Amino acid sequence: MSLFFQQLNSVSKWSVLFIVYYNPGLSGRKISYLSGMGWVPVRNSLEDLCRRNFLIRKKKGRAYTYYPNKHHILYPLLKEFFQRLDRVHEILFEDLRRELFGPHEEELLALKLTPSTLYLITRSRADHLLSGVRKHLHQRGLDFLRLEILSFEELTTEEKRCEIKRLPGRSCGIPLFQLMDLL
């Protein structure tokens, strides 16, 4: 088993796998954009993952698209791992509501977790919670995530709404499309 983990030896490879498993058929540039990483580490990861048969690359027009290799021996394990990992956002949402927002838990409206950033959407400005959230993320082993706390009012700009909506990752709390409809 350690042989396989030696092949998946970087954060960029895991991030790329996560994105491809949830969004098969994306181009390398789109994967790079969604991961929040530069093109070079993503390209290197894609090349290595394809060479080791974790991913399949197909030509589409002038670009290549990437898919999980369903014939790889680890495909069922990776698929289950990423599906279970998908519940992290729900656990984190409930933790934050209970431990940081406490009696004001209705203040935390939604959470969006991408491979690189945690977005918290609150009813009103919650900058005073920033250090508490950072400490909580550190305790949970998630201090590598960039953190953005957005108030509901900040979502009134079309640009910000579109940016949050199109990011990869899972949401929890009031569904983001319902939040957008309230604006």
Note the topology.
Blueprint: H1 2-7, H2 11-22, E1 26-27, H3 28-35, H4 39-51, E2 55-60, E3 63-68, H5 75-85, H6 88-101, E4 108-113, E5 117-122, H7 130-139, E6 146-151, H8 158-166, E7 170-173, H9 176-182
Parallel strand pairs: 5-6
Antiparallel strand pairs: 1-3, 2-3, 4-5, 4-7
Q: What is the approximate shape?
A: globular
Strand content: 15-25%
The whole-angstrom Rg is: 18 Å
Helicity, as a percent range: 40-55%
Main structural class: alpha+beta
Indicate the low-confidence ranges by residue numbers. Answer: none
Give the tally of β-strands: 7
The neighbouring-strand order within the major sheet is 6-5-4-7
Averaging pLDDT over every residue, what do you get? Answer: 86
Largest sheet descriptor: 4 strands, mixed
What is the count of distinct domains? 2
Question: Cα distance, first to last residue?
Answer: 50 Å
The sequence of SSEs as H and E is HHEHHEEHHEEHEHEH
What is the count of DSSP helices, taking H or I runs of 4+ residues?
Answer: 9
Description:
This protein is α+β, with helices and mostly antiparallel strands. It folds into 2 domains: 2-85, Arc Repressor Mutant, subunit A (Orthogonal Bundle), CATH 1.10.10.10; 88-182, no CATH class. It is built from 9 helices and 7 strands, in the order ααβααββααββαβαβα. A 4-stranded mixed sheet has the order 6-5-4-7, with helices on one face. The protein has a 3-stranded antiparallel sheet with strand order 1-3-2. A hairpin with a 3-residue loop joins strand 4 and strand 5. Helix 2 (11-22) crosses helix 4. It is globular, with a radius of gyration of 18 Å.
